[in-house]
């Protein structure tokens, strides 16, 4: 019961705890989440004075490299499912972006902006006000942006490994 109001009226990432694929959904609509152990969802919110944007964290945590790390850290379950609850999320290594490095800052900003574009495309698609041709174009654009985000995160990780 102690965390029942933890995420009220705050932007957050909603994390699917038990799944086959990563699920990190940005929420600014005050959705209520149900959690417990290896079931349901958990939330991620930013601490005050944190240097990262939630959109960056959403993209970073969705990267295949991070998915591999979470899969290895989480518990395995029947059917190819594994958990990525708070016990895993709290131990994840988060990249240390150097905002004074022009190249790192540029990649960071591009990742945040592209992730926001996807969020806005998803909202538009959800609204069901698009024509079929606009919907198909938006889905294609979304796929291109995701590929670009994953490429930029990979580049950022490679810069940090040098």
- How many structural domains are formed by the residues? 2
Net shape: globular
The counted number of beta strands is 7
Rg estimate, integer Å: 17 Å
Q: Order of helices and strands, N to C? A: EEEEEHHEEHHH
Question: What can you see in these coordinates?
Answer:
The protein has 162 residues and is α+β, with helices and mostly antiparallel strands. It has two domains: 12-89, no CATH class; 102-161. It is built from five helices and seven strands, in the order E-E-E-E-E-H-H-E-E-H-H-H. The strands form two sheets. The chain has a four-stranded antiparallel beta sheet with strand order 3-1-5-4, with helices on one face. Helix 1 (54-62) packs across helix 4 and helix 4 (102-127) runs antiparallel to helix 5 (132-161). The longest helix is centred in the last third of the chain and has 30 residues, at 132-161. The radius of gyration is 17 Å and the shape is globular. The termini are far apart. The model has no long low-confidence stretch (mean pLDDT 83).
Helix and strand topology:
Layout: E1 12-16, E2 18-19, E3 24-27, E4 35-36, E5 39-44, H1 54-62, H2 64-73, E6 76-77, E7 81-83, H3 86-89, H4 102-127, H5 132-161
Antiparallel strand pairs: 1-3, 1-5, 2-7, 4-5, 6-7
Helix pairs in contact: 1-4, 4-5
């Amino acid at each position: 019961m102690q965390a029942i109001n933890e995420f009220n009226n705050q932007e957050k990432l909603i994390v699917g705890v038990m799944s086959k694929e990563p699920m990190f959904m940005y929420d600014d609509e005050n959705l209520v989440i149900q959690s417990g152990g290896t079931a349901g969802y958990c939330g991620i919110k930013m601490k005050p004075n944190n240097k990262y944007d939630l959109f960056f964290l959403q993209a970073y945590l969705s990267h295949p490299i991070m998915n591999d790390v979470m899969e290895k850290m989480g518990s395995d379950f029947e059917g190819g499912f594994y958990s990525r609850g708070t016990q895993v999320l709290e131990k994840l290594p988060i990249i240390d972006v150097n905002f004074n490095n022009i190249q790192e800052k540029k990649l960071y900003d591009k990742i945040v902006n592209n992730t926001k574009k996807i969020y806005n495309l998803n909202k538009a698609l959800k609204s069901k006000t698009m024509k079929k041709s606009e919907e198909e174009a938006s889905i294609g654009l979304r796929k291109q942006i995701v590929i670009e985000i994953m490429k930029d995160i990979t580049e950022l990780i490679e810069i940090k490994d040098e």
